[in-house]
Amino acid sequence: MNTVVGVSFKKTGKIYYFDPDQIELEIGANVIVETARGIEYGKVVIGKKQVSEEEIVAPLKKVIRRADLKDKEKHEENKRLEEEALEICFKKIKKHDLPMKLIDVEYTFDHNKIIFYFTADGRVDFRELVKDLARVFKTRIELRQIGVRDEAKMLGGLGPCGRVTCCASFLRDFDPISIKMAKKQDLSLNPAKISGLCGRLMCCLKYESKVYKKLKEMMPKVGETVELELGEGEIVERNLVKKTVKVDIGEDDYIEVDVANIEGYELE
């Protein structure tokens, strides 16, 4: 077993394990670590714990030190420089007339590399752009093409529900999502209603799936006949979120009933 802490470099970025190396680190502590990209400034999001060899990517790197005030100031300065680099890269892309959309830019903490993130419909020949940027910034340049889901995660925004997108607020990884998940939740299969800002199926279809599955098991099925105070009726529709059903009581008359009021169904 290995003693590790979980470190993230963005608010909802992936979590990476590092060896705390006898340094006392609590959740929320800022640290300086060595990564494949170089020296980075991150935040502890998982406190010390024991993990097996299978859960780590060898070799397990050590936390260099707890970040001090100078490190924090440098990190904030890097954020300011990133804004300038973004503006410069926008102009260079326009100059080279490249079919790409610049999304974000990152400086590594040690300025060993600048990474520009972009989206494009296909492959883009950006070799001349890289040379141009290298002449300006005098450091290693990396242009990384990302997908629309990563774009939504970086830019953020409001989802169809009116809340900040899940990917930008708390989801750290993207799970595979299928149309079957929408079907199992009795949702409309209209793409406009089950797609997020990115145009892909909404992430909540995945992590809410278990809740809907449990509710469906607890609630009566469409077509089932139930006994009400007004008499028998057939369920023609159900709302899993509100925990109600629409019942046909005859003569084109429908009423909405709370499932808790139907005999034999007790919802938690």
Question: What does the model show?
Answer:
By secondary structure, the chain is of the alpha+beta class. 28% of the residues lie in helices and 29% in strands. The protein contains 8 helices and 12 strands. A hairpin with a 2-residue loop joins β3 (30-35) and β4 (38-51). α1 (69-96) crosses α2 (127-137). The protein is elongated and about 80 Å long. The model has no long low-confidence stretch (mean pLDDT 89).
Instruction: Output the structural class.
Output: alpha+beta
Q: What do the pLDDT scores average to?
A: 89
Task: Classify the helix fraction into a percent range.
Answer: 25-40%
Element-by-element helix/strand order = EEEEEHEEHEHHHHHHEEEE
Q: Which shape, going by the Cα principal axes?
A: elongated
Low-confidence stretches: none
**Compute the gyration radius: what is it?**
26 Å
Describe the largest sheet: 5 strands, antiparallel
Tell me the strand percentage band: 25-35%
In short:
The chain has 268 residues and is of the alpha+beta class.
List the helices and strands and how they pair.
Layout: E1 2-8, E2 15-18, E3 30-35, E4 38-51, E5 63-66, H1 69-96, E6 101-107, E7 113-119, H2 127-137, E8 140-145, H3 148-155, H4 166-169, H5 179-184, H6 191-194, H7 204-207, H8 209-218, E9 225-228, E10 231-239, E11 244-248, E12 254-258
Parallel strand pairs: 7-8
Antiparallel strand pairs: 1-2, 1-4, 3-4, 3-5, 6-7, 9-10, 10-11, 11-12
